[in-house]
Amino acid sequence: MTAVSPTPTAPARLLEELGRILGPTGVLTAARDMDPFCTDWRNLYHGRACAVLRPADTHELSAVVRLCAAHGVPMVPQGGNTSMVGGATPDDSGREIVICMSRMNRIRGIDPHEMTMEVEAGVPLKVAQDAAREAGMMLPLSISSEGSAQMGGILATNAGGNNTVRYGNARELLLGLEAVLPDGEVFHGLRRLRKDNTGYALRQLFVGSEGTLGFITRAIIQLQPAPKEVEVALCAVEDAQGALALFSAFRALDPALIQAFEYMSGTGMALVNELIAGASLPLEQPAPAYVLVELATPRPGTDLRAFMEGVLADAMEKGIVTDAVMAESETQRANLWKLREEHAEAQKRAGASVKNDVSVPVARVPELIARATQACMDLIPGIRPAPFGHLGDGNIHFNVVQPVDMPADAFLARSHDIMDAVADIVRDLDGSFSAEHGVGQLKPYMMAEWRGGAELATMRRIKEALDPHGLMNPGKIFPPAAPR
């Protein structure tokens, strides 16, 4: 193993013992090697680590966690490093160790009778999706970062995505789970049972915990039958109220056919068409807002296309939809989805942006978009609100892009003002300030006001019970505790 210089928080003895457990490729200590693990996808957080560890299996992970705990070294779990809230980034103290799960990347098996898949934490979602497809089934979770995001991180953040309206979040797809606890002990919960009423559902503690309670290592995921028919349409509407009316029209006839129902603003779509190569709006003219609707069924011979055409024709006759196009091939379907999936990248290229991942009851989405748009424009003249997202489950990414003539630093300095302005409206509409991205290190300051009292106190008790020394992903989710 290459010799490394010890630091006060990573003594030579600890690094030597870690090297013996993980081998020469399992411990990274050179700054150039660690840098990609210390910066988040949005480039908001730039931390430092005393080492990056890459265990290959649960046994190795258990051993290194036990060792780090004995030395009092804080640990930051990291999957594909796609967090939108800095949830997988170390702080800048240089004390923390990042533990990357990418080498734990095996699909342990697919059971076609149970319709389940056993995966290790480091399996990228796209790899798991492809494996399910090859077995004649579908892993219904779908998110923009699925090529990079890993199954452990997806579960740890309870990722949602495009198909939540039909299949639920990651939590609803989980049957069993294995995890390494903060002291190195292994929690064995890899059960395939749909019914298991034997006390607390401990596996669910780890889902949405953002790595603050332990390392998810393996999981049993529920699959679905592969669709036999899929139809996708891009629809132009006047506003979010029109989008809601179209959703209600589909849902009134057959809610089980709706696989995704996505809202996009005219501003956001314009940025995609301007800044993303190969993106092209297939409608005669731009619209104030858009809906991308995907229907799917595992039943052959359903004539899903006729159903889609009928609903859209009626919506156009009523003035709900002003224009629409349906995909005629798999290539066209992918092109329509590209217009939705590239929203985050287009906004990133357009300049600094502030992201508000919020949820409200579905019926109140139009009010959220209208009020939050006006509030942000009043706060910063020239701001470019570009909301988009999962209207079908009430989750809107109310993102705003800097004014063209405003420096990025000056705009980002107003981030909390913008987030608070949107959050005030979300709270008034009985919503949540974090729908699917989590809390990370971006939003802990909001937890006391939104989840204070018994709820936050109970979370702290669970955290203290499993991680009494606060070594698991410190600085995430929880605001600093008040002095006792």
Structural account:
By secondary structure, this protein is α+β, with helices and mostly antiparallel strands. It contains 18 helices and 21 strands. α10 crosses α13 and α14 packs antiparallel against α16. The protein is globular, with a radius of gyration of 23 Å. The N terminus is likely disordered.
Strands, helices and their partners?
Blueprint: H1 12-22, E1 27-28, H2 31-34, E2 51-53, H3 58-71, E3 75-78, E4 97-100, E5 107-111, E6 116-120, H4 125-134, E7 137-138, H5 151-156, H6 164-167, H7 170-173, E8 174-180, E9 186-189, H8 203-206, E10 215-222, E11 224-225, E12 229-237, H9 240-253, E13 258-265, H10 266-275, E14 289-297, H11 304-317, E15 323-326, H12 330-341, H13 343-350, E16 353-354, E17 357-359, H14 365-379, E18 384-385, E19 388-390, E20 395-397, E21 400-401, H15 408-412, H16 415-428, H17 447-451, H18 454-466
Parallel strand pairs: 2-4, 3-4
Antiparallel strand pairs: 1-2, 5-6, 6-10, 7-11, 8-9, 8-10, 12-14, 12-15, 13-14, 13-19, 16-21, 17-20, 18-21, 19-20
Percent helix, as a range, is 25-40%
What integer value in Å does the Rg equal?
23 Å
**Gross geometry:** globular
Beta-strand fraction estimate: 15-25%
Record field, number of beta strands? 21
**Lateral arrangement of strands in the main beta sheet:** 15-12-14-13-19-20-17
Determine the oligomeric state from the structure.
single chain
* C-alpha end-to-end distance: 46 Å
Overall CATH class of the largest domain: Alpha Beta
Main beta-sheet strand count, sense and barrel state: 7 strands, antiparallel
